[in-house]
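Course assignment 3, question 2. Fill in each field.
Student: A.L.
Task: Predict the tertiary structure for the chain below.
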Amino acid sequence: MKNVDKIDRLILRALEDNADCANKLLAERVGLSPSACLRRVARLKEIGAIKKIVAVVDPDCYERKLSVVVSVKFERHGLQARQNFFDQLKRERAVVQCYMVTGEVGSIIILHVADMDEYTELTDRLFNEDPNISAFTTFMVMSKLL
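Answer field:
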C-alpha cells in the first residue's frame, strides 16, 4: 500500500465524494490548514494515490441515455490474449468503465450509448467480431440507484 496515513485517507474519501471541493473547505473537513492540505493533495497525486480528477457527467447531457452493463467471457485468459480487446475499448467513446473480474466472466464493461442502433453496432464490432470473446451478456440499466 502507498504511504498514506489517517488524514490522507480522510482527504481521499472527501475528494472521492467531491473532487471539485475547494481546498479551504477540504482543509476544514479534515482538520488541516489550507496550506498543509494543499501540500498533502499534491503529494497524494505525486505518489499515485490520486490517479486523476474526473467529472461524472449525466449521460442525458450528451444524449447517451441508454446505460448498459456487459459481462464478457474470454476464450483465452492470458493478458496478451485480452490486450487487443482492452486497447480497442479505450478508443470507444461509449465505454465508460471496464473491470477485470473473478468468477464466471473475465470482464465487466459499462457503456453509455445513444440508442439500440448504436449498441448493436458496438456489439457487432467489439464482441461478435473478436475471436477471443466466447460469450457476452447484456444487462440494460433500468434505473441508477447510487
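Instructor remarks: The domain at 6-46 is CATH 1.10.10.10 (Arc Repressor Mutant, subunit A). Residues 74 and 133 are 5 Å apart (CA to CA).
Grade: pending
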